[in-house]
Design brief:
The chain is of the alpha/beta class. It has a single domain, classed as Rossmann fold, CATH 3.40.50. 32% of the residues lie in helices and 21% in strands. The chain is built from eleven helices and twelve strands. The strands form two sheets. A ten-stranded mixed β-sheet has the order 1-2-3-12-11-4-7-9-8-10, sandwiched between helices. Strands 5-6 form a two-stranded antiparallel ribbon. A hairpin with a 2-residue loop joins strand 2 and strand 3. The longest helix has 13 residues. It is globular, with a radius of gyration of 19 Å. The structure holds S-adenosylmethionine. S-adenosylmethionine binds next to helix 5 and strand 12.
């Protein structure tokens, strides 16, 4: 069976492509084409194996787990999870490079939990971010280059029915996770907001993730992290108006996490419900545990994820 036949099988199993939606399938096809060394029988087996999908109840059940093996490897650096009509595709690679391959104005909501370097000096003193005295991944500042790309790939306007049937319109949402504002982080957060505004984003407000579980703290015990809520220009009225700006979701025990900076799927679920509807496509630049994919699939939302470190991807397979 050649590559085209496999793609035909895939497309058939998806049903008629919805041309009003971004060509997620095309993204997947491109990933296959880019993978130089792959075994076609392996791809076929993997795709067929995942096609029956994980049952709704199983996905839901996994929202509270941290070790769900959701993804199947289908080509080198390409992993997919399919649930009903929703697909999550996890691509191994550098977010700064991968995002340039995403089509302009194709993403309905963008998530970035970046590997910021702002607290790196605390590693040395051991006051935070400790895992044997090391952070287990590289750090890098979100710079103008990637902020511009983030702006480019997001949809500028979309229209549809909100709750109670009212018409909604506005630019797509961006969520950037940041640590709690402190003497060490306040200026960095402020600079990041200003850089984002320079490329065209509108800063709406700070959301709070109340972790309920109190962590270690050097100036008051940390119980929350921030989420910068931005829009591409005019803000899209949220689809789910029941979501407040303080999101209380218990942080899982670190011993049960597959990733040291893991965010719970329930937290992502709330943000996804705020900004998307079933059939939309979200992008997460720094997947880590890929918990966002579980939340997205449970809501019928397609998801593209990038993660540079294979070790984390392997844990999600
Ligand atoms: C703060 S963690 C994200 C945790 C994630 N939100 C979760 O819930 O598990 C940042 C992740 O970005 C990854 N990363 C670091 N540099 C990257 C890059 N240049 N491109 C893509 N991923 C990168 C790290 O390996 C790490 O897994």
């Amino acid at each position: 069976m050649d590559e085209n036949n496999i793609m035909q099988q895939l497309l058939l199993s998806y049903g008629t492509p919805d041309t009003s939606k971004p060509p997620l399938m095309e993204t997947i096809l491109n990933c296959f084409r880019n993978g130089a060394k792959r075994s076609l029988p392996e791809i076929y087996d993997a795709v067929i194996a995942v096609r029956p999908g994980t049952k709704e109840s199983t996905i839901r059940g996994r929202l509270n787990e941290n070790n769900g093996k959701l993804f199947k490897r289908v080509a080198r650096g390409v992993y997919i999870a399919i649930h009903g009509s929703a697909t999550a595709i996890l691509l191994e690679g550098d977010a700064w490079e991968k995002i340039t391959e995403i089509e302009t104005e194709s993403i309905d909501a963008l998530f970035a939990d970046p590997p910021y370097p702002w607290l790196n000096h605390h590693i040395e003193t051991g006051t935070t971010r400790k895992k044997d005295g090391h952070l287990s991944y590289e750090t890098r500042e979100l710079d103008t280059a990637i902020l511009k790309e983030m702006f480019r790939v997001l949809k500028s306007r979309k229209e549809g029915a909100g709750i109670n049937g009212q018409r909604i319109s506005g630019g797509a949402h961006l969520f950037i996770f940041v640590p709690a504002p402190t003497g060490d982080t306040w200026n960095h957060i402020d600079s990041l907001i200003k850089e984002a505004e320079k490329v065209g984003f509108r800063f709406n407000k700070l959301f709070i993730w109340d972790k309920i579980n109190i962590g270690m703290g050097y100036n008051g015990r940390n119980r929350y992290e921030g989420i910068l809520f931005m829009s591409k220009g005019e803000r899209l009225i949220p689809y789910d108006l029941s979501i407040p700006d303080v999101l209380s979701v218990r942080r899982p025990d670190i011993a049960k996490c597959v990733h040291e900076s893991e965010k719970p799927a329930e937290l992502y679920e709330k943000l996804i419900r705020l900004s998307t509807r079933a059939g939309d496509v979200i992008l997460d630049l720094f997947a880590g545990s890929a918990n966002i994919a579980m939340a997205a699939l449970a809501l019928g939302v397609n998801c593209i994820l990038f993660e540079k470190k294979r070790e984390f991807i392997e844990k999600n397979k």
